[in-house]
Amino acid sequence: MDSLLSLLGLAKKAGRLEVGEEPVGAAARARKARLILLASDAADNSARRAQHFADAGACILLRLPATKDELGSAVGRSSVAMTALTDVGFAEAVAKKLAAIDPVQYGEAAERLSVKARRAQERRNEQERHEKNLRSGKKRAIHAAGAKSDKSR
Q1: In this predicted model, what pLDDT tens digit does every residue of 24-35 receive, in sequence order?
Q2: Are 9 and 71 in contact (CB under 8 A)?
Q3: Quick one: which of 54, 94, 128, 133 has the fewest CB in 10 Å?
Q4: DSSP, residue by residue, 99-123
């Protein structure tokens, strides 16, 4: 559990964690939230809002086995009911740690985030290859050859 809370603190320092109801809601509405985390002792009203944010942002909502005070101390606040991870890598890592604690409750979410993280990595790799091709001139040479053959027709 300590490693999970430490990971959340690291995400906060990296700027990949939104803390509190308003920032979480804004991240979810902007579709930047990847995983919304709710403290175990959060009020019913907060849980209902968190579910609404998760539905609106098409992201996953998980209830943590940590209290508001524990979650708050991990992210440098006195008490926090909900947070949202905006980075798919951090979200995957948190879900994996939760699945290691309780595979029945968190296993499916960890698997879904693992697939999302893999797809995001594939998109980044493809973008890097594309940019490398543009820098090395491969794309320009291909397009120029195609333009010359079109003019000769």
Answers
A1: 999 999 999 999
A2: no
A3: 128
A4: HHH-HHHHHHHHHHHHHHHHHHHHH
Q: Could you give the CA distance from residue 35 to residue 109 in angstroms, rounded to a whole number?
A: 9
Identify the three-state secondary structure at position 19: strand
DSSP state of 153: -
- Choose the CATH number for 2-116 among 1.20.1250.20, 3.30.1330.30, 3.40.50.261, 3.40.190.10: 3.30.1330.30
Q: How far is CA 146 from CA 22, 136, 143, 150, 152, in A?
A: 52, 18, 5, 6, 10
Instruction: Read off the tokens for 72.
Output: 């708050």
Looking at residue 140, what is its pLDDT? 59
Where would I find the H helices in 16-60? 21-29, 44-57
* Residue 147 or 137, more confident: 137
pLDDT level of residue 147 (50, 70, 90 thresholds): low
Task: Output the pTM of the full model.
Answer: 0.79
